[in-house]
């Protein structure tokens, strides 16, 4: 993590691997995603929602989410350090910005951040944080202009949100889905059915996909031995770990790690 805000394209953020956004995971920084092309689905705290052009998503740090905009999707991501001087909303936000003036204001802020980041002049960190502060002002105004829907949060959504928080906290411990259900005071069957209704996947699938993201991230972004990666992600058996990776990716841990060196680098700045 850096001590200042950053601006990236979605492709840069995912480092060319769609799984980085599409599998449930969290970000150590606060993230503001501005979609400028394409449409798809986001899952935030266990609740699915449709996402399209001129949508702004605010994902607080360490919040379980996923995003799938397809191959034609494009957008910008502003990352703000969770413990830095810039204060971001502490709850997820999904803003559909229909006002052209508001769209242009946000675009101007993000463009200014891109220019500052690319120039790498002295005091760049201060300038980027100042731009990020302007971004938070824009967000607060947009939140006032578009108050949250008055529809009450259902009991099912509350349960799945609680489950998502536990999964994000404990996915690397090796706990089974039934253990989470017990902690939440419901049966595994009820948790499975509720999770499917809200997220489109079962409770076990959500847990598996979060584990898969953690596994792939360590395999592709560290040089830890495979048995160490297995232990760090809650697998007691190295053999089962290897079967898990092969089953869900079609490749062995060794093949996934080799793919990283062969992957073309994402350009420093992609045109919108």
Could you give a quick summary of the protein structure above?
GO terms for molecular function: DNA-binding transcription factor activity; sequence-specific DNA binding. This protein is an alpha+beta fold.
Architecture per CATH nomenclature, i.e. the level-2 architecture of the largest domain? Sandwich
Report the span from N to C terminus.
26 Å
Write down the CATH topology of the largest domain: Jelly Rolls
Characterize the biggest β-sheet. 5 strands, antiparallel
| Total helical segments | 11
CATH class of the largest domain: Mainly Beta
Strand/helix succession: EHHEEEEEEEHHHHHHHHH
Which stretches are poorly predicted, pLDDT < 50 over at least 5 residues?
268-272
**How many distinct beta strands?**
8
Q: Mean of residue pLDDT? A: 93
**Shape, per Cα inertia axes:** globular
Summed up, the domain count is 2
> Which range does the strand content fall in?
15-25%
What Rg, in angstroms, do the CA atoms define? 19 Å
CATH superfamily name of the largest domain? Regulatory protein AraC
Q: In terms of structural class, how would the helical and strand content be classed? A: alpha+beta
Structural descriptors:
globular, 8 strands, 11 helices, alpha+beta, 272 residues, Arc Repressor Mutant, subunit A, Jelly Rolls
């Amino acid at each position: 993590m850096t001590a200042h805000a950053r601006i990236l394209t979605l492709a840069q953020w995912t480092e060319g691997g769609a799984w980085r956004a599409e599998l449930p995971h969290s970000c150590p920084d606060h993230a503001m995603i501005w979609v400028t092309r394409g449409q798809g689905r986001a899952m935030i705290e266990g609740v699915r929602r449709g996402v399209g052009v001129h949508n702004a998503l605010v994902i607080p740090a360490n919040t379980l989410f996923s995003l799938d905009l397809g191959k034609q999707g494009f957008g910008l991501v502003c990352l703000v350090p969770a413990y830095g001087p810039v204060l971001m909303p502490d709850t997820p936000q999904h803003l559909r910005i229909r006002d052209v003036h508001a769209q242009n204001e946000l675009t101007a802020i993000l463009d200014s951040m891109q220019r500052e980041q690319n120039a790498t002049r002295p005091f760049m960190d201060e300038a980027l944080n100042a731009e990020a502060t302007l971004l938070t002002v824009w967000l607060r105004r947009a939140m006032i202009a578009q108050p949250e829907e008055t529809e009450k949060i259902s009991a099912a959504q509350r349960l799945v949100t609680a489950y998502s928080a536990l999964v994000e906290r404990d996915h690397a411990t090796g706990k089974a889905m039934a253990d989470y259900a017990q902690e939440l005071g419901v049966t595994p069957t009820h948790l499975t059915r509720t999770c499917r209704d809200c997220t489109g996947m079962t409770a076990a699938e959500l847990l598996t996909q979060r584990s898969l993201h953690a596994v792939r991230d360590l395999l592709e972004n560290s040089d830890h031995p495979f048995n160490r990666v297995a232990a760090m992600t809650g697998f007691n058996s190295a053999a089962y770990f290897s079967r898990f990776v092969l089953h869900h990716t079609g490749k062995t841990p060794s093949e996934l790690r080799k793919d990283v060196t062969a992957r073309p680098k994402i350009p420093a700045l992609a045109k919108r």
